[in-house]
Specification:
Helices cover 49% and strands 13% of the residues. By secondary structure, the protein is of the alpha/beta class. 27% of the residues are buried.
Length: 171
């Protein structure tokens, strides 16, 4: 048993029919913009077993995140917990906005992906400056960040994203 994907253009009709749509992004991302009718269930605290007990395991559940990765992870959790009608919205919130699905916009939070780029770039820049002007040992910092980015690209798992998601401004 696994999950299926749907295109975001189907969301308005499904929501009119009372579909259960969950958004597994961080609270800050959700506050920034979310599809109308979506419920927030952040991936880092999503308990699939409890969700199935509260909502049943047969009612269709549609899951989205920013672009699809976290939604797929949540779908795997739901399927493993025994949910039988799990769907991932292909392309997530970004794709839903592109096809004019109604959304609610709030305060402009910086997405986790942008926060990762800002943090990685800052660490590389600072490490390089410290390596040039203080001690050559500081060149290890940009090397470490570069290795982390390669690891993230190869495994599609970003440790910095996981850390930033737990920061207070992303709660």
């Amino acid at each position: 048993m696994s999950y299926e994907t749907i295109t975001p253009s189907k969301l308005p009709k499904l929501l009119d029919e009372g579909a259960h749509l969950i958004d597994v992004r961080t609270p800050a991302e959700f506050k920034s913009v979310h599809v109308n009718g979506a419920e927030l269930h952040p991936l880092d605290s999503f308990d699939a077993e409890s969700f199935c007990q509260e909502n049943g395991s047969d009612k269709p559940v549609y899951i989205l995140c920013q672009s699809g990765k976290r939604a797929s992870m949540a779908a795997h959790k739901l399927v493993a917990a025994g949910h039988r009608a799990t769907y991932v919205v292909d392309g997530g919130t970004v794709a839903a906005i592109e096809v004019n699905v109604p959304v609610t916009r709030g305060q402009g939070a910086i997405s986790i992906e942008r926060q990762v780029r800002i943090a990685a770039g800052s660490l590389v820049f600072i490490g390089t400056l410290l390596g040039l002007y203080v001690h050559s040992g500081f060149f290890g910092l940009p090397a470490f960040v570069g290795a982390g980015l390669v690891f993230a690209g190869v495994t599609d798992t970003c440790g910095m994203r996981l850390i930033l998601a737990k920061c207070p401004w992303n709660r």
